[in-house]
Each structure stands twice: as C-alpha cells, then as structure tokens.
Write a structure and sequence with these properties.
7 strands; Pnp Oxidase, Chain A; seven-stranded antiparallel sheet; single chain
Length: about 140
Amino acid sequence: MKVLEPFISQWAALLTTFRRDGTPVGTPVSIVVEGDHAYFRTWSTSGKMKRIRNNSEVRISPSTALGKPTGPAIRGHVRVLKPDEATHAARLLARKHPIMHRFLVPMAHRLRGYETVHFELIPHDNLTAESTKEGVA
C-alpha cells in the first residue's frame, strides 16, 4: 500500500506506456486505489491499449489532469480486467470521480461506440510469484 499512497487522493496520474521500439508515451488517466492495487480505464482502440497489449510494463506518477508530473514515478505491470473485475473497478472509479466516471466517460464511450476496458496496475513491489504465473510479469 505504501507504494500507491501518493495516488489515493490524486485525481489523475501520468501513465507511461512504451512503444514497440521502447519510446515512452505519457498519458494522463484517472486512477483509483484499493489496497495494493490501482485501477484505470480507457477504450479498446486507444493508443495506450495497443501499447499495453504489446508491453504490460508501465510507469505511473502522480500528475495534474493535463499530465504534468507532481511526484516520482513507480514501475509496475498492468493487466486487463475480466468483466466481473471490471464492474468492481468501474464502481470504484465512479465513487471517486462521480461526474467524470459515472456519467461523462461512459456516455462518451457509448456515443462513439467504444468498448471500455478496465486495467489493474500492480506495482513491482507488490508482484508475487502467483501473479507472475498468471502472466502479469
């Protein structure tokens, strides 16, 4: 939990994903922390989704809504959540960011025909042998 503590009250975080050639790409995301895991979402055809599919290794740092880092980055892995897990993550995001994630994001995704994808961020300090076996690491 200590690793994710700076993100608990943080509205946004700068998620850095990596292109196939290793070039980092930073994108601000809304984030919610529960225990030693953090959650965020995007749509299925976004650039960050494509980069995560190729490389689940990410860095994340507290940031402003526009993506200016306000604290140090941590390294971790992300995984796409299964539907029942995604429902839980969506509720957590909606509770923390009621206007944005209860109404605006779902409506925008629906209107544009996007499929919403939820992710779990697991900091490197929290990776276990069991999560490594599941393909997270």
